[in-house]
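User: Hi! Is it possible to get a structure for several chains at once, not just one? Here's what I have:
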Amino acid sequence: AQKITQTQPGMFVQEKEAVTLDCTYDTSDQSYGLFWYKQPSSGEMIFLIYQGSYDEQNATEGRYSLNFQKARKSANLVISASQLGDSAMYFCAMREVFSGGYNKLIFGAGTRLAVHP
Amino acid sequence: DAGVIQSPRHEVTEMGQEVTLRCKPISGHNSLFWYRQTMMRGLELLIYFNNNVPIDDSGMPEDRFSAKMPNASFSTLKIQPSEPRDSAVYFCASSNGRWNSPLHFGNGTRLTVT
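Assistant: Yes, the chains can be modeled jointly so their relative placement is included. Here is the combined structure:
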């Protein structure tokens, strides 16, 4: 079963506008973590923002914020004041616990964002 | 502070050849992950080490793939023999194992098997 779903294969936004990238997840755990990564065309994976399942406040990091709706199991990334350099692939990921108390990160399929001038 | 270092950045090899990918995690990190990225399958976790011990290798596609972590500062992913369908970008990532800590990724190795 798909654990992380990113329903938007591609999105575009005008420069300086805000954009929301969707992410829904599936878990029966009470404790989990959600991450967003950016992958520009150069290929590296850049960590953007983290949200813990028990965090009461939505996470924010500069122009990035996370719209966390626990009951809906969604963790959407909001990028404010888009810049041309925001054009990239964006991945949502969830930290999943497995036997022995170890944990690993599983990724969604990604959303490709294009920022237009 | 150096990040995760992978080598080589690019590897082109012929089908049937052995390929070895290398990774140096961030100093002090006790968790190391190998991922494979393809257009068709996205980012797949291949294997996960904790304190140099393989914890979960359920993502390793088949016996042609093997991974080792002889010490805390070095890991290898080996493919023998390589096949064209192994062509992908292979990422190594490390973390300090804390729940809220992100994975730090290397720049990846782009493998092409002809």
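The interface with chain A takes residues 33, 42-43, 45, 48, 50, 55-56, 89, 91, 93, 99-100, 102-105, 107-108, 110 of chain B (CB under 8 Å). The longest strand of chain B covers residues 42-50.

User: Great, thank you!
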